[in-house]
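Researcher: We're teaching a course module on how sequence relates to structure. For the next exercise, students receive a sequence and then see the predicted structure as tokens, so they can try to spot secondary structure elements on their own. Here is the exercise chain.
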Amino acid sequence: TDMPRHHRHHKRRGPKSRESSTQEPESAAGEHSYLIKKSDSLGRYLVASRDLPEGAIVISEDAMVVGPAQDSLPVCLGCYSPIADLSTSYRCEKCQWPLCSNKCKGLYRRLGHSQEECEQLTTCAVSSAQLPQDQLYNAITPLRCLLLKVNQPEQWSKLTSMEAHNDVRRKLPSIWEYNQKTVVDRITQDWKITTFSPEDIHTVCGVLEVNAFAVGEDSLSIRGLYPTAFYIAHSCVPNTSHTDEEFTMKVFTSVPVAKDEMITLSYTNSLQGTKSRREHLKESKFFECECKRCKDPTELGTHVSSLRCGECGSGHLVPSEPLSHDSAWRCDNQDCHASLTAGDVDTVVSSIDKEIKSLDHNNVEELEISIRHYSGVLHRNHYLILGLKYTLSQLYGKSAGYLIHQMTEAMLERKKQVCEDILQMFDVLEPGLTRTRGLTMYELHAPIMVLTIQRFEKHKITKGDLCRSLRRVAAYLRDCCKILKFEPEKSQEGSIRKAAQDALLQLKSWEPVVGKML
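Model: And here is the predicted structure for the students to work with:
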């Protein structure tokens, strides 16, 4: 099981030292809950215009542009459903590009296969059928952005105000030359579209790389540009979360945000270690994160990057200078002087990462053995172990041989333990109304409920114990529903919310025994 979908973020710059920036209010945007501010170090960013409670909607807006992600597999240009076989797929009657059917809901729609796009592709010198399937879709979303220049100049103006980092990207052949080949040459040479300059096309590629969000369900490979959300700065411990449904994005506070506090999202996988997160942000968003978590050797006391000290056995190795790529790692036990070079740590972690990727992630026993094995080298909260525990939290209760009614008391206790372990980490790294916490609370309620009822029926616990445990279960389910309330109904998270609501109703049947819980 993969980590939840919100870790597939695409985005840009993050707060450096906020104190040293000269802040200039730019606009108050009516009755919005945010102000747009500007500084030399950050460019434009959002702050709260008033004290915001958790769960407050900060932004709700439609996408300007939506389209296939880079290196997308074949999809319908209208609704983005996967196309298994291009050779037999239905084709648009006019431009001959693949569609799911002639009744596609995205046909001739603004955020699907628009009339303007169809006309442009109809006049192309080379049809899609003549192009190699590899990288077939790379130029589609950039073309949709470019068509704004002709058809929606106001939206084009907004798009060109977004950061593209052409100066940085031009020096990176892996990015610039790849875009030249799969996007610029495709549009100007294969398709013979001469309306747009190569520089405009490269700029649009940069804008998408830096500012687009991954949207849609897990199975879909789609990116979208939004007119306000792109202002939100990055933090590795963000204070907002977001959902999207039918390409409308809602950004909401996951924790209370004070007036004038910067509004932040995480644009990397916050369940990775500092080195991985900072490298990803540097390579994909072209900035070095210096948030409070990145600066802290222990990552806010979680130790999600720490190694166990092989010399003293009681301490943990943490980086002396977390913001330096080649920092030495030293034992945090004051009586121990053990240290490792950054290269040594990389070798150990990369080797374990590779081994973990080769595991069967549907095999409970294999994952449990790996956790015990790697816990001798890594801190028990290390992100690689955390990932294995997250997978286990989903497998216990749902996989063959481990369905909830088949599980022994020891198995139920183990599911409860791994859920509690990861929830403890999420409480620090993704606090408040965050998807990971909501999903984990749902997983945690089940073993507590089953164990409690089994023990009560066997007279192993008192009525008071039963009451306390079921109230705890009800609290987890209520919090789960509260956290997942913005999720699309048809998404996996929407299904979990519905299951949590149903479980709350089932709990009501215990009220004659334990009193009112809801």
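Model: If you want an answer key for the exercise: The two ends are 32 Å apart (CA to CA). DSSP finds 16 helices and 15 strands in the chain.
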